[in-house]
Amino acid sequence: MELENLEKKLPEKIKTVWRQTEGIAVLVFLLCSVAAAIILYYAEVSVWWSAIGFGLTAVYAVFIYLFIIPFRFARWSYQIKPDEMEIQHGIIFRSRVLIPMIRIQHVETEQGPLLRRQKLVSLSITTAARTHKIEAVNESESDELRHHILELVKVAKEDV
């Protein structure tokens, strides 16, 4: 499999993980809205205040699911070249990071329960300055990609 010089997108399944993560946040907001509604009811305050909480939660959910997740997916990409790695992401505040291979100290994979269900792995690339993350790669490709990056790092360090 040729891994170099190709702009790669995240797997489509990452959108499911993002939806599930945001679904948990929406559930927490709904629970807070219900708690606020109960408190306001017993405090004999207008029910309209709790309706505002439910309305804001609904607007948040619609905005995240219809706009943020598709745009976030469209803006995420990474590219591996023999001498550097490029990671791009962001909607409003876009980030484009070029990581020289010679600066990479180690590459690590992580997998939480939501990623594991979708057979995805998060890849962390650590330099002396900070850790950069590719949010998701297919589980079946993760070891190959990690070893490929480490081989390029080895070659880059030998050339110095």
Automatic annotation (TrEMBL):
Residues in YdbS-like PH domain copies: 74-149
Pfam entry (one): bPH_2
Using the record for this protein, list the coiled-coil segments as residue ranges, or answer none: none
Q: Which InterPro entries match?
A: YdbS-like_PH (IPR005182)
Keyword Transferase assigned: no
Query: Which keywords, in A-to-Z order, does the entry hold?
Result: Membrane, Transmembrane, Transmembrane helix
Its transmembrane ranges are: 21-42, 48-71
**Key word Transmembrane helix present in the record?**
yes
Protein name (Swiss-Prot/TrEMBL): PH domain-containing protein
Q: Which organism is it from?
A: Listeria swaminathanii
